[in-house]
Amino acid sequence: MNDKLKQFLDSAFKPYGNFPARKDVEQELLANLTEKYSDLKAGGKSDEEAYQATIDSFGDVSEIMDQVKPATGNQVQDGRSVHKILKDSFKQAKRSKSKFSMVEMKQSDLSETNLAGADFNFAELRESNFDGSDLTGAKFRAADMRGSSFKGACLSGAKLDGCDVSEVSFTEANLTNAQFKAAALKGATFNGAKLDGATFGWSDLRDVSFENQTLNGTYFEASSLKNTSFKNAVLSDVTFHHCEAKHANFDGATMDKVTYALLKGAKAKLDNVEVQ
Amino acid sequence: MQVFLRVNDNYLDCHSNMIYTVVMIGKKLSSDLLRGHTDTIILNLLSDGDKYGYEITKLIHEKSDQLYLLKEATMYSSLKRLEHDGCITSYWGDKTQGGRRKYYSITPKGQELYATNMWNWTSAKEILDKLL
Asked: Does residue B34 carry a pLDDT above 60?
C-alpha cells in the first residue's frame, strides 16, 4: 500500500518537475498519508475504502506548490541544452549532403511539394512559400523563415529548434509532435492548425493566438506568453512548465483539472474558464 | 488600539460577503470560512507541544467532533507558510513505516501571531454575533 500511496504522490507532483524540496516534501507527506491509511484500516475499512478516503482527503496539490520553491529551469527536458542541440546540428549541417541546408533560398516557392524529412538546417528561407507541402519530419534548425507561409502544410514531427518563424502563417497546418525549442514565434498564426503533442520550449510566444484551438498534450516550457491568447481554446493534458502565464488570456477556455492546477500555480487569470 | 481596530475593519470586510453564507451545510461546516483560520488553529495546537503533520489533522478532526476534516494539502501549505514567516520551526523525527515524520514547534513570533489572531477573532466574533 505504501507503494500505491507513493505512486499517488509521485503522479500528483509530476507536473511540477524536480523542484528542489520535492524529495523532502514527498517523504513527509507519505508518512502522513501512510499513517492515515493505517488508522482507517484499523477502524475497519477495506484496503480499497481506506486508500480512497486517504487520497480524497489529500486536497489540491497546487496549494502546496504555492508555498514551495519551484525548480529553476533552463535545462532541456532531455538534459541537453538548446545551445548544444544547435551546435551539434550546425556541425551536422556543415557535413550534410542535403541540398537545402545552409543555403540561401529567400522568397522561394516550394508549395505543394513533397519535402518529407528534408534538411533545412541553417537555411535562409525568408518569405518562402511552403503552402500545402509535405514536410513531415523536416528539420528547420536555426533556419530563418520570417514571413514565410506554411498554410495547410504537414509539419508533423518537424524539428524547428532555434528557428525564427516570426509572422509566419501556420493556418490549417499539421504540427502534430512538432518541436519548437528556443524559437522566435512572435506574431505567428496558428488558425485551425493541429498542435497535438507539439512542444514549445524556451520560446518567444508573445502575441501568438491559439484562439478556438484544441490543444492535446501540447507542451509549453519556460516560454514567454505575454499577450498570448488561448481564448475559447480547449486544453487537455497541456503542460505549462515555468511559463509566464500571468499575462496570457484564457477567457472562455475549457481545460482539464491538471492543466487548471498548473496554470493556477503559475498565477494565470482563470476567472472565466471551464474545468472539465 | 487604533491599529487593532483597522485590522478588525479589514477582517469584517472580508467576511461581509460571507454573512449570508449558510454556515452549516448538512452536518459539515462550511470549510471556506474555516480555511482562513487554518494558521491560527495550527498555532494553537502547537502551543501545546511539538507535533507532526498527520497528528495535527487528526487532532483537528477529533477536537471538532469529526465535523472538520482539514485537507492534507491545505494543512501542509499552511505549515510551509508559517515556517517561511518564522512562526514555527521544524525538525525530522524518526523513520516510520511510510516515510519520515517532520515535527513542528512554535516560535515566540508564532505565539505573538496567535495572540493577535485570537484578539482579532474574539472582537470580530463579538460584532458578527450582533449582526448575524
From this structure: yes
Q: Which CATH number belongs to the domain containing residue B30 in this structure?
A: 1.10.10.10
* Tens digits of residue pLDDT in A118-146: 888 888 888 899 999 999 999 888 888 99
Q: DSSP strand E in chain A: where? A: 179-181, 199-201, 214-216, 219-221, 234-236, 239-241, 254-255, 274-275
> Which one, of A232, A178, A166, lies nearest residue A205 by Cα?
A166
Let me know if residue A16 belongs to a domain. Answer: yes
Q: Which residues of B touch A60 (CB under 8 A)?
A: 71, 73-74
Question: How many structural domains compose chain B?
Answer: 1
In this complex, which of A2, A36, A60 lies closest to B97 when CB atoms are compared? A2
Residues B38-87: tens digit of each pLDDT: 999 999 999 999 999 999 999 999 999 988 888 999 999 999 999 999 99
Residue A54: inside a domain, yes or no? yes
CB-based contact A247:A226 (threshold 8 Å)? yes
Residue A202 buriedness (CB in 10 A; 0-12 / 13-18 / 19+) = buried
Domain containing B55 equals 25-119
A33 and A50 Cβ atoms separated by less than 8 Å: no
Q: Reply yes or no on whether the pLDDT at B7 is more than 60.
A: no
CA-CA distance, A141 to A162, in Å (whole number)? 6
Query: Chain B residue with minimal CA distance to A37?
Result: B98
pTM above 0.90, yes or no: no
Mean of the per-residue pLDDT values of chain B: 80
Residue A64 with chain B: CB contacts under 8 Å: 73, 76-77, 80
Q: Nearest-CA distance from B65 to chain A in Å?
A: 16
Name the domain count of chain A.
1
Cα separation, B45 vs B74, in Å, equals: 16
Query: What residue has cell string 454556515?
Result: B23
Minimal CA–CA distance to A221: which of A17, A10, A64, A5? A17
Give the domain range for residue A14.
2-65
pLDDT in tens, A75-105: 444 445 666 666 776 777 666 666 677 777 7
